Amino acid sequence: MWLKLLVYQAVVPYLANVFRDLKGIEMQTPLLEKLSILADSAKYDVSCSSSGGKRKNEGKGLGNAEGMGICHSYTEDGRCVSLLKILLTNFCIFDCAYCVSRKSNDVKRAAFTVQEVVDLTINFYRRNYIEGLFLSSGIFKNADYTMERLVRVAKKLRQEHKFNGYIHLKTIPGASEELVKEAGLYADRLSVNIELPTEESLQALAPEKNFKEVLTPMGHIKDQLVLVKEEKKLFKSTPSFAPAGQSTQLIVGATAESDRQILTLADGLYQNFQLKRVYYSGYVPVVTDSRLPIISTPPIIRENRLYQADWLVRLYGFGVNELLDEQNPQLDLQIDPKLAWALRNRHVFPLEINTADYEMILRVPGVGIKSAKKIVSARRFAPLTWEHLRQIGVVLKRAKYFITCGGRSLETREWDEEAIRRKIIFGEKGSRASLWGSQLDLFQQAS
Amino acid sequence: MYFYSYDGSFDGLLTVVFEAFERKAWPTQIGKEGEAPPGIFATHHFVPTQEDKANRVWDGLGKKLSAAARENVYKAFLWEQPGFEMLIFQFVRLVFTSAQQGVEENFTQPCVQKMAAVGKQMFREKHRMEAFVRFQRSQDGLYVAPINPDFNVLPLVVPHFEKRYADQHWLIYDVRRQYGAYYDLEQVHLITLEEAPPSLRKGQLSPDILTAVEPLYQQLWQAYFDHVNIPERKNPKLHLRHLPKRYWKYLTEKKPRIQAHQPIQNKQVPTAVPRLKA
Ligand code: SF4
């Protein structure tokens, strides 16, 4: 037997108590069913990131959540599976129109015990299925009653199981400041979902909620983040508070807001509440409701464009007002927002790649952050040629209309905006390349 | 024309570099002991591994390169693709002969480009292994995972798992290269199983080795995987790009289902066509 062999080679001491068996076979069906129901109703929350954790395994605990997050798998729709994303329960006293768990929806209901969530998390984690837990919940009884249970799961994982994996807790709108504070002691990330981009929409579709109830906990979290950061400077031993920060989600396409409204809101949230991420979730119809639009497919491309624009604002130095304005309140679905900006601002181009500033190189379509950095380092050694650019990873098909290399352009004639747009979308010869297929890449960086 | 051969170890390869510099006899090819020299006119040197010489090359690289760029030289060794020895040699030679600091960023040199590309490939495969390893728990409490990576990344992923699973025994076994990393709560040992069970290669350990609840957790994970999917957003192309088929064999969620998981009927989806009254 091969396991015996190992024992001889390295002497495996008997391993006690890392694992608690689930009692009895009769537990199996309910647990499987619960997991099915509560994963199914949690999946529309798109935020799956597990990055930004700083929890180190010091000593001999379980898990480590340093550095970048890992996608352990991908769903058939190509989304990252990083966390065990479940609801504690899908019982809910509210009746938000867009939600599968709404009170008036006739569905199977289920609820995990605190211990069940802990066991699932630990056992999935030990098998390297997940980076950690993302726990949300319908509201049962009231906000604090629900929040208290979410906090209890996190506390148990951290204290009893010395779990250092990632924990993301959803903050229930209306939960008390004390509970939010306690949640931050155990969670890596906290989030409060805004869901709908304006007060009016919220009023219409989620009448029990209002902006204030959502923004208040968000404000508490921010205050606490700032406070702990200050205290840490003085006392290294100050306990961490949600080290991976806070995030929120906006549903796109369920209500009439423009991309400009959405991105302006997001930008404001980044600045005023120190959000790490705003997630955009293309509306998937889950319930019939006369207040909701009838659509056959979720607005996946629009969602993708919003992510790209968000990226440009956070990492590429663009302002929302540069990407969208009153005349153009919607992002172009055919081309990415950087290319759209470049086409509207032809006077800025062409840039000479051997001399242009890093900040400007970032604005060239087809050049990502990595390529821009490489360009700036490499040109210290020798003037760059087109071949160098290709090797560095610049997408010349797009970039060539906007740059020169050693004073020369790859294009022999000037093309107007329309021509460039056509060539990039349909290819050089104007053939109808499969546009939607090639551009449909969720979470892809705009470059 | 010089053909150098070595024992196949990293130190051995660094010793070759040292010798080549000392003799000022630049190799046209480097190969493992026993490999056929290229053509009959090549002068063949077998270089026995000498740790002190290897160390001098390694330390020398440390003075001229960033830590990451030096690490990349080791990664190119683990890359194992045809010509990797010469690539390493050309890169090291460039580093030692150029006066400027930061040669690793001189992307105008083909070997610098190639090294960066190799580094990227290795990073990807390492990252994938960190994600796609799936442990199965044996009755002895050992967490076992077979892997079959395209490149030899096992040594690169060990620190990650050592930190993550500090309180459980685990074994990650490369079934292609036939060696594994075994962690015994104290440290990691590289081991070779004299008789690896066929079920390890197949990716599913046989039930008589596994702990009683292992099948339940595998089933729970499959159920979870099936239920987080949103059918309306199906995108097989993207799915395959992130999760290429060659990894499926060892992924619990991609193995046959004991029982099919039907989507929960919690939606009352509005249809675009209004229903006609009967
Ligand atoms: S409160 Fe949350 S779970 Fe309850 S109906 Fe509204 S969105 Fe759904």
Taking strands numbered 1, 2, ... along the chain, how are they ordered across the largest sheet of chain A? 5-6-7-8-9-10
Report the count of strand segments of chain B: 8
| CATH-derived topology of the largest domain in chain A | TIM Barrel
Number of domains of chain B: 2
Helicity range of chain A: 25-40%
Q: Let me know the average pLDDT of chain A.
A: 83
The largest beta-sheet of chain B arranges its strands as: 4-5-6-7-8
Please state the CA-atom Rg of chain A, rounded to the nearest Å. 25 Å
Radius of gyration of chain B over alpha carbons?
25 Å
> Which of globular, elongated, flat, extended, rod-shaped describes the shape of chain B?
elongated
Overview of this protein structure:
- The complex is a heterodimer of chains A (447) and B (278).
- Chain A is 39% helix and 11% strand.
- Chain A has helices at residues 2-10, 28-40, 114-126, 143-159, 177-186, 199-205, 211-234, 259-273, 300-315, 320-323, 337-344, 358-361, 369-378, 386-392, 396-399, 417-426, 435-439; strands spanning 53-55, 65-67, 73-74, 80-81, 83-87, 132-136, 166-170, 189-191, 246-252, 275-282, 351-352, 403-404.
- Chain A has a six-stranded parallel beta sheet with strand order 5-6-7-8-9-10. In chain A, strands 1-2 form a two-stranded antiparallel ribbon.
- Helix content of chain B is 42%, strand content 13%.
- Chain B is built from nine helices and eight strands.
- In chain B, helix 6 links the parallel strand 5 (142-147) and strand 6 (169-174).
- The longest helix of chain B is centred in the middle third of the chain and has 23 residues, at 110-132.
- The N and C termini of chain B lie far apart (89 Å).
- Residues 270-278 of chain B have low confidence and may be disordered.
- Bound molecules: iron/sulfur cluster.
- The site of iron/sulfur cluster has 9 residues of chain A, from loops.
